[in-house]
Design brief:
The complex is a heterodimer of chains A (about 280) and B (about 800). Chain A is of the alpha+beta class and about 280 residues long. Chain A is built from twelve helices and 14 strands. In chain A, helix 10 packs antiparallel against helix 11 and helix 11 runs antiparallel to helix 12. Chain B has a domain of about 150 residues: Aldehyde Oxidoreductase, domain 4, CATH 3.30.365.10. Helices cover about 30% and strands about 20% of the residues of chain B. The chains are: A alpha+beta (about 280), B alpha+beta (about 800).
């Protein structure tokens, strides 16, 4: 497996990286952790003229506290996100999702921003980021702009990040005190999820006061299960109540059919996994 | 028949020695074929057909030839006169039909992945770049893809053959005189059960991709190959290419796994040799994982129609088997014989009076199939063990009880089966009793009952499987009677070096099993020399000049026995020299624990001293040649028949169809054990591989014949994270057909675990009226079986692989190109 030839640059600042991308035009590819790009290059499914490697841009790594939000640098590895105490306290849903992401090797090389920018609808980070209402900071030649989660994921492998732009950081509002769970359904551990559900709930006196639910691999982008969210509010955190709300999890979804299951099976799974995710998040 | 003899006071045999070879194998500080670099070496890249069946109308190599650092581009037309046809060593019938199997397709391709052109360049990268530039024009032909349809000749895989049926093979117990007539048994049956099972196509998925290097300089052409069968490869290359056998040397250096997938003479080996011969330079080819999954031979792939006749009390009176076996596009080294290896095993451990086996070998436009761990025997065991469960279900009997009612009792050994095989030894009662005890059978049944009664969304399934297999391939005379092209003996040499160290040369060819350690243990005990003083040499036909290699759980039983025989010859050679030097009569020389002594005295010499004395040859008896080295071959008089009872408990989540294994107990009887750690390794690995067939692995093709499960993203090979810790134990009933009393263990776990797990899945679904779930038992199939939305998931797996990259970026590859 040998990739076709390409030019390689590894700038040390975001500005230099953006300049390199703008110069190279649409044949350029950004290399973050490489967990999706390298196999694609090696199988020659993509033949970029330039690969811009972000690995030397130190400012893109790490998690910081920014008042009512956490800021996660795009080049922070999954493993670092998993071990980060700020994330664990204020965005537990991410900790839970990253814990189950692929395998240890991938978690040590793959990056938070790289996975989100790749926008594989079966990726484990899109649904949690969407559910938590993340905002995405994108740098380009004209400076930086911020895109809200609802507008970030556009289609299969397509985000608001344009040619010549780089996703630099992701801002996650704090969900301190919320319960969270990522319910992932796979046949083997290292597989992309067949379906997964990301749920975060705030329970107040046994009643669900607020709920956020995201669906993985139920369409061409991560999806919010808004009907479930609104049905959950005011319900008690019991199996029966949550079961009723979760029944609408597949509403408005357009899941794929593939070797692991057809669309009907996925729609069914979405309801079961949503119930389980919400109950686990609520500590029920 | 040889009988088990008392071993000398062995310290090594039976001890859990850690593997000598692991330091270098695990660190990689050793020679695997792809590590080999020779001066001036050239590198190959293959251009493969994207179509399952097509006429090649034109190949334009001009641009590739002009690319930087390209030395040569070969097409089928260039080598048509010299490439010969790849060998099939096992024609199963006089009138077997087959299309000659070219290494490079000449004017037509018959499966997706078949090689159509080869680029030879100064670097692997240059070869791969140029392979993209080879422009192949195809006219697509209709492809024979569905096995049952292919058996009806709806579409022909090879139009010139006029049929897809390669051969028909029958065993009939009435005709063979080994039993009664199946038709009578079926006519008189009080219970008649008919079922059809699918053995899905599997991919061997060995760890080290296939790799070949050829050095054409010097008197002999040297080939390094990641093969299981260097000796067979050498002979077959000579016959295929018309090269004098004496001008070839084949080396299997360290090889990283095979599972039967490297029991082959491959197109890539022939091509690498042809390229080296044409260029006069060393050439190397290492496949990519994608190529390995697509174009290295696959395994299994059968439809099994089974008719079981029984009495109302559960006594089986007959079994009829109608197989359709998918050959794929060509016949590989033993392709047609793989289903026949199962023919004698459908009766399992049971006493059936009547048996008939009918097998039709069928061509399709898919990668050819061949040996894969167990080769025919897992398929047979699956069928009978699923059927025994069906009989138990029909009669509402416990599945263990129904087996016990039909199996051969331990006092009945040796037992001649309805297939005419003589099972030498076994104790199915003991293995089963131990397995049930370890498993907590009754407690788990009680839990199952509770879950059923409470309609628990998580149901418990309990699976049972027994097995035996014919292994230790094989008595040469039996192979001859089956028209196999070679014998089944094995060779060993023991070289007593003057310094007292020992080299054991074996004709077996380890590729991960641990032969170096086990053979050292055997020789250490036999010769009374330290384990550490023994080197085991293998795989190089200049060093190991005779051998029949490693497959079919044969190495220890046959090859280990040859080591015993050679060591014994060394001792016999040493005795007259010892007598001479000790001034005693040969009849008074005793050998024990590495020392030759004169009976009734304290006079004696260590075997190392004798090695030096015989080497220096200063004082040998008249007429005695220097040296103590000895050669021996061992040809078993019979197969060995390991057996075992496996029990599995698993939870089925009826809401999702997900399966979670709770407990797996394997009690195997593999006879005497040389090294329990190695046995554990084989059993654990085998179990995972067999469970993988039950739950995870399947080679899926789309409607145009393209392999959809073409990477490890979609061909689900399990990891440690997907399995539980198995509970294993053994009963020991020594084999009587070899001096070590050992039986094969390499395939045991794989054979027993697949039906055990499927039986457990189906058992969990009993409350839902489900009687079958097709393999692999995916959550979707299980869920649909529960909800009656498919007959046990009998529908084939369909759909594309999920893309994990942007398909918009992918260039149009429909006109071919390198993989």
């Amino acid at each position: 497996m040998i990739p076709a030839q390409f030019d390689y640059v590894a700038p040390s600042t975001v500005e230099e990286a953006v300049n390199a991308l703008v110069e190279a035009g649409e044949d350029a590819k950004v290399l973050a952790g490489g967990q999706s790009l390298l196999p694609v290059l090696r199988m020659r499914l993509n033949v970029p003229s330039v690969v811009v490697d972000l690995c030397r841009i130190e400012s893109l790594r790490g998690v910081r506290d920014d008042g009512d939000a956490l800021v996660i640098g795009a080049m922070t590895t999954h493993s670092d996100v998993f071990h980060d105490p700020l994330v664990r306290e204020h965005a537990t849903l991410l900790t839970k999702a990253v814990e189950q992401l692929a395998d240890p090797q991938v978690r040590h090389r793959g990056t938070f921003g790289g996975a989100l920018a790749h926008a594989d609808p079966a990726g484990d980070l899109g649904a949690p980021a969407l559910a938590l209402g993340a905002s995405f900071v994108i740098a380009g030649s004209g400076g930086t702009r911020t895109v809200e989660a609802d507008d970030f994921f556009e289609d299969l492998f397509t985000t608001a990040v344009q040619d010549g732009e780089i996703l630099t950081e992701v801002r996650i509002p704090k969900y301190t005190g919320w319960g969270a769970h990522y319910e992932k359904f796979v046949r083997v551990a290292h597989q992309w999820p067949i379906v997964a559900v990301a749920a975060a709930v705030r329970v107040d006196g046994g009643t669900i006061a607020e709920a956020r639910v995201g669906l993985t691999n139920m369409g061409s982008t991560p999806l919010r299960a808004r009907a479930v969210e609104s049905a959950l509010v005011g319900q008690s955190a019991t199996d029966e109540a949550v079961r009723g709300a979760a029944a609408s999890a597949a509403e408005g979804t357009n899941p794929p059919s593939d070797l692991n299951g057809d669309a009907d099976f996925r729609r069914h799974l979405a309801t079961v996994l949503t119930r389980r995710a919400v109950l686990a998040a609520a500590g029920a | 028949m040889t009988v088990t003899e008392d071993r000398p006071a062995g310290k090594e045999i039976g001890s859990p020695r850690k593997r000598k070879e692991d330091q270098r194998l695990i660190t990689g500080r050793t020679k695997f074929t792809d590590n080999i670099q020779l001066p001036g070496m050239l590198h190959l890249a293959m251009v493969r057909s994207p179509f399952a069946h097509a006429t090649i109308t034109n190949i334009d190599t001009a641009e590739a030839k002009a690319a930087p650092n390209v030395v040569m581009v070969l097409t089928g037309a260039d080598v048509a006169d010299e490439q010969g046809a790849l060998p099939c060593a096992w024609p199963i019938s006089e009138d077997q039909k087959a299309q000659p199997h070219p290494s490079i397709a000449v004017d037509r391709v018959a499966f997706a992945g078949e090689i159509v052109a080869v680029v030879v360049a100064r670097s692997a990268a240059a070869a791969r770049d140029a392979a993209e530039l080879v422009d192949v024009d195809y006219d697509e032909l209709p492809a024979a893809l569905d096995l049952k349809e292919a058996a009806e000749d709806t579409v022909l895989a090879h139009p010139d053959l006029g049929t897809n049926k390669s051969a028909f093979w029958q065993f009939d117990s009435a005709g063979a005189g080994t039993g009664s007539a199946i038709d009578d048994a079926i006519r008189d049956a009080e219970i008649l059960i008919e079922r059809e099972y699918r053995q899905q196509r599997l991919i061997p998925a060995f760890m080290e991709p296939r790799s070949f290097a050829v050095d054409p300089t010097g008197e002999q052409i040297t080939m390094w190959s990641a093969t299981q069968v260097p000796h067979i490869l050498k002979l077959m290359l000579a016959l295929t290419l018309g090269i004098p056998e004496s001008k070839l040397r084949v080396i299997a250096p360290d090889v990283g796994g095979g599972f039967g997938g490297k029991l082959q003479v491959t197109p890539e080996e022939v091509i690498t040799l042809l390229a080296a011969r044409r260029t006069g330079k060393p050439c190397k080819y290492t496949e990519t994982r994608s190529e390995s999954l697509m174009a290295a031979h696959h395994g299994r792939d059968q439809w099994q129609k089974l008719t079981l006749a029984a009495k109302a009390d559960g006594t089986v009176t007959g079994l009829k088997v109608d197989l359709i076996a998918n050959m794929g596009a060509y016949l590989g080294l033993v392709t047609p014989g793989v289903p026949i290896l199962g023919a004698f095993m459908f009766n399992g451990i049971y006493k059936f009076p009547a048996y008939q086996f009918n097998c039709t070998n069928v061509f399709t436009n898919m990668t050819w199939t061949d040996a894969y761990r167990g080769a025919g025997r897992p398929e047979a065991t699956y069928a009978i063990e699923r059927m025994m469960d069906q009989l138990a279900l029909e009669l509402d009997m416990d599945p263990v009880e129904i087996r016990e009612k039909n199996w051969i009792k331990h006092e009945e050994f040796p037992f001649t089966t309805v297939c005419g095989l003589e099972y030498d030894s076994g104790n199915y009662e003991a293995a089963t009793a131990r397995a049930k005890e370890m498993f907590g059978y009754d407690e788990l049944r009680a839990e199952q009952k509770r879950r059923r009664e409470s309609n628990d969304p998580v149901q418990l399934g309990i699976g049972v499987s027994t097995f035996t297999e014919m292994c230790g391939l094989a008595p040469s005379r039996v192979l001859g009677s089956l028209n196999y092209g070679a014998g089944g003996w094995e060779h060993a040499s023991v070289r007593m070096l003057p310094s007292g160290k020992v080299e054991v040369v074996t004709g077996t060819s380890p590729h991960g099993q641990g032969h170096v350690t086990a053979w050292s243990q055997i020789a250490a005990d036999r010769l009374g020399v330290p384990f550490e003083d023994i080197e085991v040499l293998h795989g190089d036909t200049q060093v190991s000049h005779k051998g029949l290699d490693t497959y079919g759980s044969r190495s220890l039983v046959v090859g280990g026995s040859a080591v015993v025989a050679a060591a014994d010859k060394v001792i016999e050679r040493a005795k007259p020299i010892a007598a001479h030097l000790l001034e005693a009569s040969v009849n008074d020389i005793e050998f024990k624990d590495g020392r030759f002594s004169v009976a009734g005295t304290d006079k004696g010499m260590a075997i190392g001293e004798l090695a030096l004395a015989s080497f220096s040859a200063h004082n040998l008896p008249d007429g005695v040649e220097p040296g103590l080295d000895a050669d021996a071959t061992f040809d078993p008089a019979n197969f060995s028949f390991p057996h075992g009872t496996h029990l599995c408990a698993l939870e089925v989540d009826t809401e999702t169809g997900g399966v979670k294994m709770r407990k797996y107990v394997a009690v195997d009887d593999v006879g005497n054990i040389v090294n329990p750690l190695l046995v554990e390794g084989q059993v654990h690995g085998g179990l995972v591989q067999g469970i993988a067939q039950a739950l995870w692995e399947e080679a899926v093709h789309d409607s145009s014949g393209t392999l959809v499960s073409a990477s490890f993203v979609d061909y689900l090979v399990p990891t440690a994270a997907d399995t539980i810790s198995f509970d294993t134990d053994r009963t020991v009933t020594p084999s009587t057909s070899n001096p070590l009393g050992t039986k094969g263990v390499g395939e045991a776990g794989t054979i027993a675990s697949t039906p055990c797990v499927v039986n457990a899945v189906v058992d969990a679904l009993k409350p839902f009226g489900v009687i079958d779930v097709q393999m692999p038992c995916t959550p979707e199939r299980i869920w649909k079986a529960i909800h009656d939305r498919g007959a046990g998931g009998a529908d084939p797996t369909e759909g594309e692989a999920m893309p994990h990259f942007d398909e918009k970026d992918v260039a149009d590859r429909s006109e071919g190109g390198a993989q």
